[in-house]
Amino acid sequence: MRSILFVCLGNICRSPLAEGYARHRIEALGLDWRVDSAGTGSWHIGKAPCERSITIAHKYGIDISAQRARQITSADAERFDLILALDRNNLTDLHAMGITQAKLLGTYGFEGADVPDPYYFKGNDGFEEVFEMIHTAVDTLIEAHR
Ligand code: 4NP
After folding, report:
1. Nearest CA to ligand 1 atom 8
2. Residue 29 sits in a domain of what CATH number?
3. Is 50 a known active-site residue?
4. For the whole model, what pTM was predicted?
5. In terms of C-beta density within 10 A (0-12 exposed, 13-18 middle, 19 or more buried), how is residue 127 classed?
6. Is 14 a catalytic residue?
7. Between residues 18 and 121, the one the model is more confident about
8. How many domains does one find in the chain?
9. pLDDT of amino acid 1
10. What is the per-residue pLDDT for 119?
11. Alpha carbon of 56 to ligand 1 centroid (Å)
12. Mean pLDDT of 31-55
């Protein structure tokens, strides 16, 4: 069984969407894979995903509202065989923790591009693009490893 962990900064906007979409797709394909997400930061531990992520996921038939933010720990390195950072700052933080197998989600289909940090977005602007990028990268990732 494969295990995948998606990591962003807050674990409230981008990585919950990646977790939710990946779980949805993995179930649809009948694969027996484990999926989770975490943040490098501690600010939002225990919080639900941001409203804008809940809304865009819901639009595509995925409910991420029950997810709760947690912070990455070095023990996650042994618990997951694929650890995907949403942007290169997240990747740098993971590598600094010694999580050397971490790589960019954008490696899958986007030549290593970052999934942009929605913290600086105004309103709902950009969430459609974030979802589109995550969904294409996760599809590419699943096809590469199934
Ligand atoms: P995420 O977005 O990393 O996609 O969950 C952010 C959420 C909160 C903050 C930064 C990014 N923050 O600085 O509080």
Report:
1. 10
2. 3.40.50.2300
3. no
4. 0.97
5. buried
6. yes
7. 18
8. 1
9. 84
10. 81
11. 16
12. 97
